[in-house]
Amino acid sequence: MPLDSLFEKIHLLPSVPAVVTELIASLDNEKISTHRVSASIRKDPSLSLKLLRSANSVRYGVGRNVATIDDALLLLGFDRVRTLVIASGMVGMLKDVPGLDRKAFWRESFMVASISRTIVRHSRLEGLAPETAFTCGILHHVGSALMHIGHPDVMPRIDALVEQGAPRGELEANQFGYTFSDVGAELGRRWRFPDTICTALTYQDKPLEAVPFSPYAAAVNLAIGLYHGIASGHREEHALGEMPRDVRRPLALDLLALYEEILQVIRADDELHIFLE
Question: 13: which DSSP letter?
């Protein structure tokens, strides 16, 4: 299997912080102890600092000083704290990847994550978790980073063509026999992420092929399209109107509420500096 050779090349990848692995696994566990999570976060000073800085930022500010991890859990809620820690951990893990613009990479990842969360929040389907959608969005592009590590000469050439409108998946499949979606999903399996996330990563570029239907893959697919549409110069309203109906229809979206909120999400200032420092 071609993927095996890639992972043999990059077997020295930095490991995911233990608390991040625990929190991602907990996406499928409604009975996880918040006290245990709080204790785990406190063991990682870097993640703790980033969480508290983010919790006190304009975007997540709650009107009072968030001074401790327990404060953050109480005021922001467990789901939001979980995704902030996951995001911080992933950003900290991938540093100095050859040929990869780290700031641009994470700006896209965070925007896709935020849009994915908003899409799922306005789905009429039952049982969906917006923070799981956010996590899928944060991880959606991680396979590309790994491919830059394994193929430092070829990936920048692909990136340059993609910026001009070339199809990334087709180019990657032609060169390597797999795509960044395949790599991200395989990494998720090796890191023992929940099947929900691995499926979303696998089918993010072909959400209608997932059986059963993966709402998270569909949400990420729509979010990626929106992000790239806006990045290429389209107005936000135009990009929203271009969302493919065959992908959004199974999500049973409340389009009016979605459009109203997503415009705010897209136009909001990012706070990447908190996570990149």
Answer: P
